[in-house]
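Audit log entry. Action: structure prediction of a protein-small molecule complex. Ligand: magnesium ion. The ligand was supplied as SMILES and no pocket hint was given, so placement is left entirely to the predictor. Protonation state taken as written. Sequence taken verbatim from the request; no trimming, no tag removal. Recorded inputs:
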Amino acid sequence: MSMRATGRIGDGATGRRGDGASGAGFTPSPLDPHASSPGRPVASSGGPVIRLRGITKVYRMGSVAVHALRGISLDVYRGEMIAIMGPSGSGKSTLMNIIGCLDQPTGGSYELDGVEVSQLADDELAKVRNRRIGFVFQSFNLLPRLPALRQVELPLIYAGADDRRTRATTALELVGLTDRMHHRPTELSGGQQQRVAIARALVNQPSLILADEPTGALDSQTSLEIIGIFQQLNREHGITVVFVTHEHDIAEHTRRTIHLRDGLVVSDGPVANPRVVG
Ligand SMILES: Nc1ncnc2c1ncn2[C@@H]1O[C@H](COP(=O)(O)OP(=O)(O)OP(=O)(O)O)[C@@H](O)[C@H]1O
Ligand SMILES: [Mg+2]
């Protein structure tokens, strides 16, 4: 399955659309377990992308143990779009960091497309992360001096990829930032900075995008534009999207909401009338 950039996305609010169709193909990487774990069995194709069973996380601070996750079990299927909600301290970021292979659980099982990743060494975990997962943070995490295009090229440099300029340009096209490619973060609005961060998350063509409060630093109009980008990546490119939010009206733009409390899932169900941006 090959896809092309079909134009700027997330531009519903500004009315710009459909004039960026010249990009190179955009194809999310399949979650092929062989790519990072030779000799492992291949998952059955209909299985969940993410399968968590009894995930626990204990932070030890001196003699104090903080039980941040106390047994999380859930399945996420390819093409889903999910919001994770819950009070401050309920374990949302801890869970996202584990799903995103940025951290390891203390206990339990995590299969990413059929491959157990909860026990991988740091360098193996980094490989899985770089190839399969795009991560977006609340605070954008951009480097202050680099123009947008260079920021987006960075993951490709780490991966030793060819065609860096073309691929970074395509990713920026997908988030509607073609005309801001040469600007530094200080010359961009918050929403534009988050678009750069999303383009950076996209550039390795992951099949899974994770975002921890991606709209937490943005006003409500800009938040909707960013959610519109996620919706379009999900709808048109089949990318699985999981993000954390505190805002109910943002969560209503997904199809499934999971609520955490005290390190446990307290509810997990479909959104009654999912809203669409644009
Ligand atoms: N590195 C750490 N060391 C020790 N305790 C931690 C660490 N990270 C998180 N915690 C604790 O684990 C619990 C869950 O934290 P987490 O950051 O996952 O919550 P959260 O749901 O993301 O909250 P928020 O909505 O405020 O972002 C909290 O009690 C927190 O203090
Ligand atoms: Mg958090």
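Audit: result stored. Helices lie at 92-99, 122-132, 148-159, 164-174, 190-202, 220-237, 248-251. The first strand starts at residue 50 and ends at 61.
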